């Protein structure tokens, strides 16, 4: 039995359809004891996305971005947010989109990317599934300035730090973006041999 057999959608109302789509759906869900219960849930649909960690195993460095994020700002982040390069798929494949997004945001042109996992980042309210990638880079792969699309309001800095420094930035609360913490921890576990104690 698939979970779809336990869900009966009764009504869908679009609450907002401006940049992305917010819906309120009323449905019945069959509980584990077999009884049906009516619920309604709001879902915010902005499509799916992709993100990537560029790493240089020889120099033990990673590439991050820094940009203003209004939703984080209104919730207490009085600083630019440090993140791995990321973008919405806009109907492209995750591989194709993340290569283009990496070049737009950081100026690095990457040929080979490796998909490592995927995750629903906020499954109680946001429909988005995020595809996570890693790729090696060398300093010479940077063929442009990056920065994102100014006309769309993007004003993105690129930063290169060692994996040890990036982990220390998580510990100090300077990196507080979920996807970025996930990829840096993946890197510490799987991409860089021995990682020195972030606090030492
Ligand atoms: N006008 C307008 N523009 C918007 C709005 N929301 C986003 N934008 C613009 O839409 C563009 C989206 O840029 P992307 O680089 O494709 O996406 P992203 O915002 O970086 O999203 C990535 O990171 C998110 C946060 O972790 C992820 O949720 C997402 O999947 C993706 O990976 C940006 O120029 C942004 O300013 C809006 O409500 N109004
Ligand atoms: Mg982006």
From TrEMBL:
Cofactor names: Mg(2+)
Keywords, sorted A to Z: Hydrolase
UniProt-listed SUPFAM superfamilies: Nudix
Cited InterPro entries: NDP_pyrophosphatase (IPR004385), NUDIX_hydrolase-like_dom_sf (IPR015797), NUDIX_hydrolase_dom (IPR000086)
Residue span(s) of domain Nudix hydrolase: 45-183
UniProt xrefs under PROSITE patterns: NUDIX (PS51462)
Family to which this protein belongs: Belongs to the Nudix hydrolase family. NudK subfamily.
Subunit text: Homodimer.
Name recorded for this polypeptide: GDP-mannose pyrophosphatase
Classification of source organism: Bacteria, Pseudomonadati, Pseudomonadota, Alphaproteobacteria, Hyphomicrobiales
């Amino acid at each position: 039995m698939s979970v779809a057999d336990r869900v009966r959608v009764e009504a869908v109302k679009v609450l907002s359809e401006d940049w992305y789509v917010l819906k309120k759906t009323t449905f019945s869900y069959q509980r584990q004891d077999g009884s049906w219960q009516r619920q309604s849930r709001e879902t915010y649909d902005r499509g799916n996305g992709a993100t990537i960690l560029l790493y240089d195993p020889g120099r033990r460095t990673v590439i991050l971005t820094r940009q203003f994020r209004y939703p984080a700002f209104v919730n207490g982040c009085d600083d630019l947010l440090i993140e791995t390069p990321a973008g919405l798929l806009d109907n492209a494949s995750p591989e194709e989109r993340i290569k283009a997004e990496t070049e737009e945001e950081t100026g690095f042109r990457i040929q080979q990317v490796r998909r490592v996992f995927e995750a629903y980042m906020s499954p109680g309210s946001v429909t988005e599934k995020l595809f996570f990638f890693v790729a090696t880079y060398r300093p010479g792969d940077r063929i442009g300035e990056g920065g994102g699309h100014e006309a769309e309001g993007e004003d993105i800095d690129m930063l290169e730090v060692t994996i040890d420094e990036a982990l220390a930035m998580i510990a100090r609360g300077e990196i507080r973006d979920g996807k970025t913490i996930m990829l840096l921890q993946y890197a510490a576990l799987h991409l860089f041999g021995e990682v020195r104690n972030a606090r030492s």
